[in-house]
Write the C-alpha cells for this entry.
Amino acid sequence: MPRSVLVATVLLSAACAGPSPAPTVPEQPPELRLPRDVRPLAYRLELTVAPERDRFSGRVEIDVDLARPAPVIWMHGSDLQVGEASVEVAGERIAATFSQVRPDGMARLVAARTLPRGRATLRLSFGAPWGEALFGLYRARHRGLAYAITQHEAISARRTFPCFDEPAFKTPFEVTLLVPAGDVAVSNSPVLSEKPVDEGMKRVRFAPTPPLPTYLVFAGVGPFDVVTPAPLPPNEVRSRPLPMRGLAPRGQGAELAFSLETAARMLPVLERWFGIPFPYDKLDHLAVPDFAAGAMENAGAITYRDTLLLVDPVRTPEATRLRIGLVIAHEMAHQWFGDLVTLPWWNDVWLNESFATWMEGKVLAAWRPAAMSDLESLRRVHATMEADGLASARAIRQPLLLTADVEGQFDLMSYEKGAAVIDMFARYMGEDRFRAAVRAWLEANAHGTGTTDGLLTEISRAAGRDLAGPFESFLDRPGVPLVSARLACDGSGARLELSQSRWLPVGSGAPGDVRWKVPVCARFEFAGSAREACTLLEGARGTLPLPACPAWVMPNAGAVGYYRWTLGPEDLAHLRDRGLVHLSPKERLSYADALAAGARSATLPWAEAMAGLVPLAADPLGPVAAAPMHFLEATEEDLVSDAIRPRARSLASALYRPRLAELGWEPRPGEPWERRKLREQVVEFLVWTARDPEVRREAARRGRAYAGIADGAFHPEAVSPDLADVALAAAVDEGDEALFSALEARLFAAQDGDTRQRILQALGRVTAPALSARVLRLAGDPRLRVNERTRPLYFQALSAETREAAFRAFRARFDALAPTLPSTSADYLPRIFRGFCDGGKARELRAFLEPRLARFPGARRSLAQATESIELCAALRQAQGASAEASLSTRQAGAPPRGSARLGR
C-alpha cells in the first residue's frame, strides 16, 4: 500500500506566530539528497518505548545551522504521526508544519514565516506503530516476551524519528529512553542516570555520543539477560579499560560466553592494526530474536541475529562458531571503518563493507590460524567472480539515482570484490605501507566523514607512486579481468607475455574489450627455488621480464590478484606436472578456478576441465579437495541428460566416498578444523549431489536418532554437531509424513533460532511431492519469524525435483509475501530461482516480475541477474553438454575421467 502523506501543525500563541503570512513553499522536493544549506549540529532524542504496547512515541530537538534564509527545511520522516512542530530562533518559538511528501520518507518542515540565516532549533513530537519488516524501531517476540530494537541502516532512522537521514550529517546525540521499569535499555553510550517515573516506567538517560550519522543511532529495550565480564584491560594502544557486555533474550545469557570471549581476544588485534584505540566508551553485543541482516555495527552497541551470537556448548557446530567469529570481527572492524570515519554517501558503501570484510580475515588469522580462513575467503572471491561475470553486474562504486537503489549497494561487489581488490593492492605495495595509508586517513577524518578520493591519495602517498588510477579502474568498472599469459624464452630473454580482456561466460552479450590497470604477480621456479615477479598491466598487452626461463610459471602468485588467468597448453602442462606440488593451497584453488572458468567460457572443453579438476579431490588439504564439488554439481544437474545423470553421480561417489572412509563419521579428539569442515562438505555432497544410497541411509539413520521422535526431544549425542543439519534433512527426505509432521510441530514450538533454522532446513529439503507441497504452504506463514518466511521457497528451489513447484508457489504468494519482508529480502526474491537452466523460465520470471517492479524497484538488478544466470546456464548446456556427456559415457564405472588438461584460447 502507498504510504500516506502525514501533516501535523502546531498553533502556538499569536505572539509567537506573528502576523507574517506563510512563506511560499517550493513544490518539488529534492530528487535524492538533501540540500546542504541546512546542516544539523546536534540531536536531543527522547523515545518512549514499551514493547508490550502497540506503538512508540518520542520528542526530538535538532540544532541546525541555516546557510541562508529558509522558507522550507527539507528533511526525513517516514510514516510518523507528528503531533507538534516548531522552530526556535533567538529565543522565539515559531509554529511549523511537518509533512511527508514522498513514500521514501522525504519530508518538509515549513515554519509560519521564513527562517533567518544562522542557528535554530527544530522541535517535533511524534508517534508511530512499530516498524514493519524489521526496519526502523520494530518489535520482536521471544518465549512470549516482547523486545524493541532499532535497525536504521541504510535509510530507516527516518522511520523512528524526524531527522536528516544521510550519512554525511554526523552530529552528537543525547538519547533518553522511557521504558518499563523491569526492562533493560541500551543505546550507543553508557547510562548516565536511571530514575523511576509514573506508571511503572523509568527514564534512562545516556551520555552524549561522539558525532554519529543517523543510521548508527541505536535503541534497544526488553527483558534481556545481561552478562558483564571484566572490562578489557588497557594495552599499548588503549590507555583505559573498556567495558564490554553481552545481552541475550531472557534465559539465554549463558550462551553468550563463547562470543564474549571471542570478542575480547579479537578487539586488541584490531586496535593494534589500526593504531587507534576503540573509538567509543563501551561496547555491547546484543543477540536479537528476529533480525533482517546478519549483524549491524551500531556504534558501541552491535546487534546480531541470535544464531550469529549465541553458542550452545554442546549443539553448536564448529562451522557456526567460526562464522560467529567472522561476523564479530567484521562488525568490530566497522567501529573504525564506518563508525569512526563514515562514508559521505551510499555510493561509497565499499569504504565500509570492503574494509570490514578485508579486516575480518586479518582478525580470524590471528584468532584461529588453524582454521585457514584465507582459503574460505578465496572461495567466496571465486563465487563473486561468477556474479561479476554477468553483463548485469554493477561496479563497486557507481552513481545512485534512486533511493530504492541504496540497499542494492550492499552486495557481493561491496563486500567480497572490494575486499579482494584491497588485498591485491595491499600486497602489491606492501602491507606496512598500506596500513600507514589507512591509519593516516582514519586519523585525518576521525569522527567525521572520509571519501574514496582522500583514501586513494593517502595510498598513493604511502606507495610513492600513483595507485589511485589503478585502484579506480577496479572500483569504477564492472567485470573480472582475464589475464592471458604466455612464457617466452628466446634471444630477447625470458619473459611472460601478458594480455587482458574481460572474462565472460559462454553466451554472454557483455563487451569483452574492457581494460583495467592490473597488478600482476607471477610465481615461477628457477634454479630449484620459487621466485616472484610483479608488473602493472596497464594496457591490452604487457610484458613481465623474468631472470631466466623457468621450469613452470603460475600467473597469480599468492592467488591475491582479482583476475582470472589462462596459460597456453604447454605452459599449463608444466604447471600441472612440475609446479602443482609446489603451489600454496590458495594457488591450488586459483588453479582449480582457472580450469572451471575456462570451461564456463567454453575456451576449454568440459571434459578436459574435468580431467584436470577431479584429481584435486585427493588433495591432502580439505579446502582444495572440496574444489571440484561445485563443478561436478553443475555437471550432474545442468549439463547432462537423465540417461547420463547416474554416471555423473557415480563419478561423484567414486571421488568422495574414499575421503569419507578416511575421515569417518565422528571427529577424533583434537581433530583439526579443516578435517571437520571437509567431513561436513563430503557428507553433504554425497547426500545431495551424488545421491549415494549408502551414505544417505547412514545419514538418515543418524538423523532419526538425533530427531528423537519417540520422546519429542533432540539427542545431540546421536550425531556430530557438524553433521546434524545434513543428517536431519536426510532423515526427513528419506522418511515419512509422520516424521515431517512431528518436526513441523516442533518448529512452531521452538524458541531458539538455531533449532528453528535446523528444522526449517530439514523440512525444506524434502523432495516427495506431497511433503514439498506442505513445505511451500509455510512460505509467508505468520507463525514464522519475518526473517524465516522466504526459507521454504529458498530450500525448495535448491533441488531440481522441487524447483518448479517452488516457482509456482512463488508466483501465487508473491503479492502477499513481498510487502511483509525487509526490503533487502524482497529485493532478492528473484535470485532464489537462478538455479533454472532453461531460457523459457527466464522469460517466465521476467514476465511475472516486470509489472511489479514499480512497487519493488530495488528488485530490478536482482531480476536482471537471475534471468541472465538462467540464460547463461542454458547457453553453457548448449556449448558444453556434449563434452560432459562424452566424458562420462566413456568413463569406466568407479574410475575418474582421464585426459590432459590445457587452458587457453
User: Anything to note?
Assistant: The chain has 26 helices and 29 strands. The longest strand covers residues 55-66.
